[in-house]
Amino acid sequence: MKYINTDHLRFLLYEVHNAEELLQYERFQAFDKEAFDMMLDTAKDLADKEFFPYYVAMDTDPVRYEDGKVIAHPQLKNIIKKSAEIGWIGASFDEAHGGMQLPNTVFGAADLILNAANNSAVGYLGLTSGAARLIASFGEQSLYDTYVPKMMAGDWMGSMALTEPQAGSSLSDITTSATPTDDGHYLIKGQKIFISGGDHQCADNFVHLMLARIEGAPAGTKGISLFVVPKYRPEADGSLTPNDVTTVADFQKMGQRGYATTHLMMGEKEDCRGWLVGQPHLGLKYMFQMMNAARIEVGLSATGTASGAYYASLLYAQERAQGRRLSKDGRKNPSQEPTLIINHPDVRRMLFLQKAIVEGAMSLLLDCTKMHDMADVSEGEEAEKYHLLLELLTPIAKTYPSEMGKVAIDNGLQVLGGYGYCMDFPLQQYYRDIRIMTLYEGTTGIQSLDLLGRKITMKNGAALQLLMDEVQQTMEAAMMYEELKPYVKQLGEKLAVTQQVLQHLMPYAMQGNHERFLADATLFMEMASTIVVAWQWLKMGTAAKKAMLAGGGAQSNEFYASKLHTMKFFFKYELPKTLTHAHVLMDNEVLTIVGEEELIR
Amino acid sequence: MKYINTDHLRFLLYEVHNAEELLQYERFQAFDKEAFDMMLDTAKDLADKEFFPYYVAMDTDPVRYEDGKVIAHPQLKNIIKKSAEIGWIGASFDEAHGGMQLPNTVFGAADLILNAANNSAVGYLGLTSGAARLIASFGEQSLYDTYVPKMMAGDWMGSMALTEPQAGSSLSDITTSATPTDDGHYLIKGQKIFISGGDHQCADNFVHLMLARIEGAPAGTKGISLFVVPKYRPEADGSLTPNDVTTVADFQKMGQRGYATTHLMMGEKEDCRGWLVGQPHLGLKYMFQMMNAARIEVGLSATGTASGAYYASLLYAQERAQGRRLSKDGRKNPSQEPTLIINHPDVRRMLFLQKAIVEGAMSLLLDCTKMHDMADVSEGEEAEKYHLLLELLTPIAKTYPSEMGKVAIDNGLQVLGGYGYCMDFPLQQYYRDIRIMTLYEGTTGIQSLDLLGRKITMKNGAALQLLMDEVQQTMEAAMMYEELKPYVKQLGEKLAVTQQVLQHLMPYAMQGNHERFLADATLFMEMASTIVVAWQWLKMGTAAKKAMLAGGGAQSNEFYASKLHTMKFFFKYELPKTLTHAHVLMDNEVLTIVGEEELIR
């Protein structure tokens, strides 16, 4: 069952991102390389047995809403149970929180495997994990004791309840209210939409981590608090009482049809209780812990999905014979046997494009999870460095896989021709599934505003400078190899162009013209993310070259040659897109800023 | 019901492409401008009443296969009947063939309306029209009398039966056989897949225009003949006898779920009769008449679909309030009322991008249909000129709307955020529907090989030279207006770059290295089609500028200002993509030609 290349994951962990470096820190002393490998094997085994075989079935027999109940595919029960059994939900939690303290780097690699096998299924686990971690990080001990062990056991599931119908992405406009009572809890009233995994028949309870506004709170995001709002509230005797949280609908979606997307109403009977997490009005700050992790998780999910599609299209191209190679006279000889379609240059281009996107995104994501781990185990300036790098790269690590994974799968579908469009082949499902990734957890537009408007400028550009230093180090390492020098040069030119673009844009911000500064933030995201992934490819190319020259690497020489070839592909076909991005970003014509409503019709 | 802007169609017909010029020719003497307008009004009325209201229903209640029968949405019966009543199926046929001799230009504009309203429904009509025209053009009178009047009345439907399971896009490998009998017909045996509109309950008979190989025919495409193979064969007494054509399946697709896609088996009982159309072994030549028309039809369908999606997302953006405009300090003031999302620059960019793609594609398609008409009414060198231009532009007119319409709808879906992904809004349906367009009638890869490998090089580049002359004329007209001069300059630069790219690539063809010459044909297509649509926008910009300065034009000044603005948008955001295309196409590194199979893994 080929939906991901675990050799590539090992190459990334051990030869590119040096995950073994983590073993020297106390936090990870329970592990060794064999334990990391075992985690990957365990995830692959779980994915092979419980996730991948149900990928299509969870789409054709989707989540449905009947008589007030959300019914998911019955396999979900096994998926939750088996995943909880291997400790998946709290794998990377602190031991003090009942976790394994598995490095995020290794968890990320394992998460890619599950997502490649069945992206809808993983969401349920990821949200439960994220919700439990929020309680563990910021909640009182009593909240922890009441909820977290049940969640880690997979008996109860968690959700992230932010969005409201009238507010959409604008969290400052949420109106769900929380009224204090004398009994230590709040009464919650309002509604939330698009709540992923918010209800189904395969768990006994749902623990919603919900944003709401305490009466009298300041307007905007500064007046938002975080609450635990369970579907059933646990009583002292262990029994469960309905908590006036009603699931009024399950949104039917184009894809990820195995993943529930609920509409919740709280407090219709004035009996919905919520428990404050941490301090009042700091809800959004706490939630950002979960949101940042969720953004990386979306990147992992999108990349996994694109990986599944890549191997489905590669398999087809290796088996399907059609047409002939062109001969010297430019004609095809019909008396020859048809050739495999993988031998047609246009098909090879579409395959390498998928590979370049998928493997490049994987490298970026594992670099981010490694930074997360390094920030956890470092102190002072070092910790701050990793923290800033992760802050800067998070919107890119969410957006590049979502946007370019979509492009990858589009090419994968095209490889199959008409069959790619038919329900008998999985490409159309991957195509539908991945389309939500640019919407989840902040759309591409919002991620782009975050990147250019906040992350690039924060602390006077400190994060950007740190990233430039990292890229510089990669370039210096690559300069050791003659074959890589042209690519080092190209990447260096792109860094210079990025600086030029920023020098062109920053004055708008300084003059207070923020709309103009940020008008094409999405194009800046496209440019920056393409360059960042080229950096990842240069890292991978350098590691491959080093292993080939040293001989006797962990992988075959063909494996390393394939990395080098794909790196060259990325530099030839993808990196030059930044020529266009830079040109457009430095064009002074203003065409999309309001003032000309009548021009759109 | 806004799914298309008919004012834009009138602007294209009368102010950009001068459809009134056609009225001076004898072929079109039955018409005047009012008759053209009436055709558009009739199509809009038909689309409003019979097409658009069933767009969603034909998706949610899709074509299904039950007990050997194909069941389409019952509304299809009305759609066929009402369309036939207004003479739609033979509208552009010669009067001698029972048609109206409506110019293709006007028919194309009307066809855009129907496709914008309901793309699945139009296919049934288009294929019936194309099949009837093939019989009328190349068949004997007896075939014409037997089939064409019934088809034009909408009682019988037509199909185009080319693809076979083992051959896919490679027509030289088809194996369906035709064995001559002494009774003037042939016995047909074989199977055909992906036969659009090949069977359903809403017509009495199906007339398949089928490619097959007469016993002993030469190998390859030179041995293919064209047959009429009906589902029921009409007897002398007017009764219908089953003709041993069995529908064994209806392919279930991701989109266009209202459009039947059948799998046909012929001759299981050795009793499937086919009647030869024209001469033996010339089948592919005849079929190309239908295929070329079908390629333009796919362009119209893709463009119409993207038009429907554009207006759905525009409507949403004009009604949905969310977030606030950025203030001088770069912050959002939560005490302000939320603004309409159309006021966010990123949303405006996504809307203008859709508009630029949709309206640009419409202009290109109507330019092509006008060339078709001019080729029909001209003689000698003039006719040859239009014929060559149409040959060159057809693969672009098929591919640009299919590929970029997909991008347009992707942006339309993004405008709606999470709602765009939900089945309650139509964006996801447009997104699924349009995805087939790059596969129909020759994939993008095949169209690109046709463009670079055949059309550019044919007659020593004569067609390309003619196109360059046309663009030059547009540029000269635009030079009259100061405001347009910068765009003339940009387009001129792009023509020069195209020449450079071709000078770089042609030597490979001359050296017999056709694989290398054509390896990146798809990128050449992207570049060429972007430049061609920029040419169309300069035409539109010039017409708009002219009308604004003259005053009292057919449309409002705001309408013309919107055209100019969108032209500028296309030149700013889309045309610079050719910087990247040219860069990649002139790169000498070879990475996608076979010889390195092991590199893809």
Model description:
- The structure is a homodimer of 601-residue chains.
- The termini of chain A are far apart.
- By secondary structure, the first copy, chain A, is of the alpha+beta class.
- In chain A, 54% of the residues lie in helices and 11% in strands.
- Chain A has a domain at 443-596.
- The mean pLDDT of chain A is 96.
- In chain A, helix 5 runs antiparallel to helix 9.
- Chain A has 18 helices and twelve strands.
- At the A-B interface, helix 9, helix 10, helix 11, helix 12 and helix 15 of A face helix 9, helix 10, helix 11, helix 12 and helix 15 of B.
Read across the widest sheet of chain A, the strand sequence of neighbours is 4-5-12-7-6
Coarse structural class of chain A: alpha+beta
Give the rounded overall mean pLDDT of chain A.
96
- How would a crystallographer describe the biggest sheet of chain A? 5 strands, mixed, barrel
Radius of gyration based on Cα positions of chain A: 25 Å
Quaternary state reads homodimer
The total count of strands of chain A amounts to 12
Total helix count of chain A?
A: 18
